Amino acid sequence: MRSTLKTPHPDPLRAFRRLTIATIMATLLLITMGGTVRATDSGLACPDWPACYGQWIPPADLYMWFEHSHRLWAGVVGILILWLTMWSGLRHRNVPWLWRMGALASMLVLAQAALGAAVVLLQLQAGLVSSHLAMSWIVVGCLLAMVALARVDATRAAGQGSTARAVERQVGRWASIVAAAVLVQGVLGSQATGHGAAYVFNAIPIWLAGDTWTASTREILHVTHRGWGYVVAVLIIVFAGVARRRQRATPGAARWVGLLPTLAALLVVIQVGLGITNVLTRATVWSAIGHLTVATWLWACVVLIAVLGLIPSAATDANQASGGHNKPYQRRENEEVLQ
């Protein structure tokens, strides 16, 4: 008989959090693949669903594979999210809202699959395509919330000053407002594209002096999307400046309070540049794909700020739920195992 020391890892949610991050990256890639389908006009390359012309392995046609690979990768993402839901439900039910958020993400993914089928079978109706994009962004938001819930920061939660935490919550609330504005802009952009309104006016900032305004639906969508884009850009840049000043002026405030809003400001500058490029060149495939991809990353960045500011860590949340006496995520004493 001999004895060994077994040291449990102080962060039991680490593996779960890593899988969640991998699922987020897979979902972001899926959205870019969807943007590729749209930019290359491949949305009806496979007019049936879920197979392609009744085949799971369609002919070697580039446009068919743009569409079909998007569907196949969506299946992978769906399996990952269902896996996260079962994992959180079976292993981490002591973390309030974690498994519930996973269940919500799973329900959204199932609804998203049905919506994807409707997009194809109903011939790419603009409203359905926009809803499909918005739903995918909301799924990313749910996954980011799961990452925030699964982070373990017991030492920091216990030692952090109330002023620093108040600043983080305030920045989180600001970010939630910015995220709503970014979501509206994404839907407006999808609607403009779906109605063929993306290039009604080919000038900066909006139209040339000689352009005629007829108040058509296409013109209204175009001007609204571009005008709201300028508002969102200014809002994010101001938000980044204020957040960074608050972080510098508040001892103990987390670094993300200044860094993530600055990243959001950089992304929105890139996004405005891509938007201008799209207008002046009537969009190449690559600039159109880049425009959607950067918009999605911008959304994810702003939502991450919101969830970090507003959602407590697993350690804090568990302790609050148990009246401050539960410490399931702190390092346990080494225990002797007899073999």
SSE topology sketch:
Layout (H helix, E strand, L loop, with lengths): L2 E4 L7 H26 L22 H30 L6 H24 L4 H25 L3 H6 L2 H33 L22 H33 L6 H26 L3 H26 L3 H8 L13 E4 L1
Antiparallel strand pairs: 1-2
Helix pairs in contact: 1-2, 1-4, 1-9, 2-3, 3-4, 4-6, 4-9, 6-7, 6-9, 7-8, 8-9
Describe it:
There is one protein chain. This protein has a two-stranded antiparallel sheet. It has ten helices and two strands, in the order E-H-H-H-H-H-H-H-H-H-H-E. By secondary structure, it is mainly alpha-helical. Residues 1-7, 154-159 and 315-339 have low confidence and may be disordered. The relative contact order is 0.14. The termini are close together. The radius of gyration is 23 Å and the shape is flat.
Task: Provide a short characterization of the protein structure.
The protein is mainly α. It is built from 10 helices and 2 strands. Helices cover 70% and strands 2% of the residues.
Which key phrases capture this entry?
disordered C terminus; disordered N terminus; 339 residues; two-stranded antiparallel sheet; mainly alpha; 10 helices; single chain
Mean pLDDT over the full residue set: 84
Measured by DSSP, the beta-strand proportion falls in under 5%
How many helices in DSSP terms? 10
Which strand order does the major sheet show? 1-2
- Reading the helices and strands in chain order gives EHHHHHHHHHHE
Describe the sheet with the most strands: 2 strands, antiparallel
Supply Rg: 23 Å
Tell the overall outline.
flat
* Range of helix content: 55-70%
Distance between the termini: 6 Å
SS elements, strand count: 2
The secondary structure category is: mainly alpha
Uncertain regions: pLDDT < 50 for 5+ in a row? 1-7, 154-159, 315-339
